[in-house]
Design a protein that fits this description.
It comes from Streptomyces sp. R44. This is Helix-turn-helix domain-containing protein. InterPro entries: Cro/C1-type_HTH, DUF5753, Lambda_DNA-bd_dom_sf. One of its GO terms (molecular function) is DNA binding. A 7-stranded mixed sheet has the order 6-5-4-1-2-3-7, with helices on both faces. Helix 2 packs across helix 3 and helix 8 packs across helix 9. The protein starts with a helix and ends in a 5-residue tail after the last helix. The chain is an alpha/beta fold. The protein has 2 domains: 85 residues, lambda repressor-like DNA-binding domains (434 Repressor (Amino-terminal Domain), Orthogonal Bundle); 175 residues, Endonuclease, Chain A. It has 13 helices and 7 strands.
């Protein structure tokens, strides 16, 4: 894992060097770039040679200083992809939710098909803003994150534009617990369940629900996303893992397919959703 991490850090350094040499205003020397950034020249060298790990702020500053700000989401995604092996949520969110959200948003935008499993929460691409606000706030409270909650809510809402683009497909499996977990007030959960009911018929969405009564062939554990058979994003309490090696992608794909065998779809899925909705009381 350390070897994979170092190789990825060196690859990021090579990409940073490319940006420095392809600056629209003319290629920059390391010293010239360091002067623009107000850094020691040794920092530029260390980052380009994979001797130091860049922070999200370093990457944004680099993209701006090389006159290529549009490169930042790609750089942030690269960083999230290999730092997840060693970073805790606490470190990743030290500067709020925005840096991590930008990396994931970039990966979602380049994806055509996404497979999701969630055992206790409605997936972000299907959340109402109010439901999303409560979910994000729970994590913020747990990890003592004091800024960026509203930014995270807006980003989640903006990501949902992906669902309305041609050629996209979101394949979601949820355990029934996700429909009943009161991580928000009942009225907020009720509105969220109403939204799910309305999404069942969308041509870009396949929604499956695993009822409590279903026979399970595998433990319905941690949530994860598989993006285009090229990246897995899996969550645990201490970290968000980004896995792009072939073996893990195959493993998570197998887990998703196994869970799908226990799911119901269409009218049957709506029945389970409506049962959870009725348990919350009158509309």
């Amino acid at each position: 894992m350390a070897t994979d991490y170092q190789q990825a850090r060196e690859a990021l350094g090579a990409r940073l060097r490319e940006l420095r040499l392809s600056c629209p205003g003319g290629r920059l020397t390391g010293q010239q770039l360091a002067h623009r950034l107000g850094w020691q020249g040794s920092k530029v060298s260390k980052l380009e040679n994979g001797k130091q790990t860049a922070s999200p702020e370093d990457l944004r500053a680099w993209a701006d200083a090389t006159e290529q700000p549009d490169a930042y989401p790609e750089l942030a995604a690269r960083l999230a992809g290999f730092e997840s092996h060693i970073r805790s949520w606490r470190r990743a969110l030290a500067n709020g939710f925005k840096p991590m959200n930008e990396g994931l948003t970039a990966e979602i935008k380049r994806s055509s098909e996404i497979w999701v499993w969630e055992e206790a929460v409605v997936p972000g691409l299907m959340q109402t803003p109010e439901y999303a606000r409560h979910v994000v706030q729970r994590y913020a409270d747990l990890l003592n994150v004091t800024k960026g909650v509203e930014d995270a809510v807006r980003v989640r809402a903006q990501r949902q534009e992906w669902l309305y683009q041609p050629g996209r497909k979101l394949r979601v499996l949820m355990w029934e617990a996700a429909l009943r977990s009161l991580i928000c007030p009942p009225s907020v959960l009720a509105a969220q369940l109403d939204r799910l009911t309305g999404m069942v018929g969308m041509d870009t969405v396949e929604l499956g629900v695993v009822p409590f009564t279903a026979s399970m062939k595998i433990v319905p554990a941690n949530g994860f996303w598989v993006l285009d058979d090229r990246l897995v994003v899996a969550e645990d309490w201490h970290a968000e893992l980004w896995l792009d090696d072939a073996d893990n992608i195959v493993l998570y794909g197998k887990v998703w397919k196994t869970l799908r065998e226990s799911a119901v779809f269409g009218a049957e899925a709506n029945t389970v959703i409506n049962s959870a909705r009725r348990a919350l009381g009158p509309r």
